[in-house]
Amino acid sequence: FIYFKMQTSIRVSNRPVLHATKRIVTINGSNRAKCAVKASKAVLLKVENLEAKIASTGQPVLNGVNLIVHEGETHAIMGKNGSGKSTFSKVLVGHPDYIITNGSVEFRGKDLLVLEPEERSHLGLFLSFQSPVEIPGVSNIDFLRMAYNAKSKASGGKELDPLEFYAYIMPKLELLKMDSTFLNRNVNEGFSGGEKKRNEILQLAALESQMAILDEIDSGLDIDALRDVSAAVNTLR
To answer: MF terms per GO, please (predicted)?
Structure first.
């Protein structure tokens, strides 16, 4: 997991979602990520001297970001508003609003920057947004099944029909302690803040991604919703 959080006076270790954090990375004023702990596991993500600009204006937004994430690690990237946290996450998943001007990114040993956004997802990269969008007219179960089948097809796996997928997704719901009625509701339509964030975690569970980027997953949640979302995240670790 990579967890993005606005920097405040609250200690990170007091946040429920971060109780198992092994490394804290801070993006400072120059947007350079600094790592203080040495790990011995296989490298999952390697970012070297990454620089990017806004496509429409040419304004630089990332300046020499370096980050290494090993398998099984949880990282917290902290910084003030406008320091580049969300931009960094969007650049990693291939958002078209940004252009890479320098640096390299490897994910699971492959050059991430030459891949289309859907190819990055199929490779196992997942991004949870600060404000998940609503998709009227598309049920959760249809959305999840299409996403699962697209990833499975890309990796040469078996695509599931509606009945097979229902049998696949039900244990995920039970694991996350979510009601089955979530499946029949339109994606995020009319959801509370906590329901939207839990629905993001359900998507993560369904896709079984190798790396999850959680952009302020606790944003806008009350204490009860934060507890539920934190428990769901830690269940998948």
So the answer is: ATP binding; ATP hydrolysis activity
- What are the pLDDT digits (tens) for 127-152? 998 788 899 999 999 999 999 999 99
Tally of CB atoms within 10 A around 108: 15
Joined together, the tokens standing for residue 69 give 């994430």
**Cβ-contact 75, 18 below 8 angstroms:** no
Residue found under tokens 């769901």: 232
- State pLDDT tens for residues 72-122: 898 988 888 888 888 999 999 999 999 999 999 999 999 999 999 999 999
CA distance 145 to 169: 9
Q: In which residue are the tokens 């946290």 written?
A: 85
Range of the domain at 79: 1-123
Question: Residue 126 corresponds to which amino acid?
Answer: F
Tokens representing residue 150 in the block: 């697209």
Our count of domains for the chain comes to: 1
Kindly provide the b/e burial profile for residues 112-138, where b requires at least 16 CB atoms within 10 angstroms of the residue's own CB: bbebeeeebbbbbbbbbbeebeeeeee
CATH number, domain containing residue 99:
3.40.50.300
In-domain check, residue 219: no
CA atoms within 13 A on the CB side of 102: 9
